[in-house]
Structures are given as structure tokens and as C-alpha cells.
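In response to the reviewer comment on reproducibility (Comment 2.3), we provide here a single inverse folding case reported in full, input and output, so that an independent group could reproduce the run without further information from us. The C-alpha cells appear first.
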């Protein structure tokens, strides 16, 4: 039985959504096409009607995961418009984010994998990281002329690194301390920046 174009597109989007979660949980190479398609309620045979290759799906799922993460950031920032950076730091450097890989930040979960993939996957990550930096740059500002983007890069690097390290250890207390230390560092630097004359 032929599938309508509308149904085919719905199936394609379902596969991208499932892949964006399963890749974050298992890594790009930690799950095969059969399991990805089964997660979307489809057979492996349907894959090549929807995607050119697994790399094609990997790039699209990466874009979807990054868009989802940016949506979480935007929602957190909107909940505290007076202090959007603190709102994002609170959710990003939380124990809940550390524990939940499948819906967490794809840069933490898949950054090392992306570095070993082709230009399409890296382009998806690059675009998402630029959007992260643009949001943060607006929140951090440029009080002393050093450049909001450079500060945003340092903040993002601190946050991503902290979650990566916190997920990498067995010691739960050490994991919590890594997250707290990063949050304290990011927020104290932001406070110093905003306290400077002209900020």
C-alpha cells in the first residue's frame, strides 16, 4: 500500500525526532538503523525512502536536537526576563539536566561524536553553537569592550565542560560540586560584568 506524501513527511519527521533523542542517549554510532526506525514505529526498509544515508539523518537529527535545546533556553529566559542568564544556568547546570541525556544538550552528549563526522554534521553543530552564543552575548553584554561573543564563548565552554565532567564521574557529590562550581563561576563573572560602569 502506497503511503501518501503527507504521511511520508509525518513519518520522516517522526524518525528525525526519535533519532535526535536516541543519538543523544547512545551516541551516533551506538544505535543502528533498525532500532532507530523501530523507535519511530517503522521498518528499516522505509529508511532509504526518506533519507539519503545515516549521515543525512545524523545531520538532520542534530539540527533538531539543537533547535529543541534552544527552545529550552528561550523558555527559561522568558520565565525570568530580568535575569535570563541565571535562568538558563539554573536549568543547564542542574542535576536533572546532568541525569537526562536523551533530552539534554546535544553539544554535551554528541560534541565529540560530531567532531569525528563529516562537514554536514559539523555544520549543524556550528549553526546551533552560533545561536547559543548569540543568545548569551545578548544577556552578557559588552560592558568593558572585550566583546560579548568572547565572554559568551567562555561561559558556554564552562557550562558544556561542567556537564560533561559531571556526567563522567561515579561520585555523585563530586558531580554536584562540578555543576555548582561552574554555575558560581559563570554567574559571578556575569555579575562583575554588569557591575562595571556603563553596563
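Designed residues, in position order:
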Amino acid at each position: 500500500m502506497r503511503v501518501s506524501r503527507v504521511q511520508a513527511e509525518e513519518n520522516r519527521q517522526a524518525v528525525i525526532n526519535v533519532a535526535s533523542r536516541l543519538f543523544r542517549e547512545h551516541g551516533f554510532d551506538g544505535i543502528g538503523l533498525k532500532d532507530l526506525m523501530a523507535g519511530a514505529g517503522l521498518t528499516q526498509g522505509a529508511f532509504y525512502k526518506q533519507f539519503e544515508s545515516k549521515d543525512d539523518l545524523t545531520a538532520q537529527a542534530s539540527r533538531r536536537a539543537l533547535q529543541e535545546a534552544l527552545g529550552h533556553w528561550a523558555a527559561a529566559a522568558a520565565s525570568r526576563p530580568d535575569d535570563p542568564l541565571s535562568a538558563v544556568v539554573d536549568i543547564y547546570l542542574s542535576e536533572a539536566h546532568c541525569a537526562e541525556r536523551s533530552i539534554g544538550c546535544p553539544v554535551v552528549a554528541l560534541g565529540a561524536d560530531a567532531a569525528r563526522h563529516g562537514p554536514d554534521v559539523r555544520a549543524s553543530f556550528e549553526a546551533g553553537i552560533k545561536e547559543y552564543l548569540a543568545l548569551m552575548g545578548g544577556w552578557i553584554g559588552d560592558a568593558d569592550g572585550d566583546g560579548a561573543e568572547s565572554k559568551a564563548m567562555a561561559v558556554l565552554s564552562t557550562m558544556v565542560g561542567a556537564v560533561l565532567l559531571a556526567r563522567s564521574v561515579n561520585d555523585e557529590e563530586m558531580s554536584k560540586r562540578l555543576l555548582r562550581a561552574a554555575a558560581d563561576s559563570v554567574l559571578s563573572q556575569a555579575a562583575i560584568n554588569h557591575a562595571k560602569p556603563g553596563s
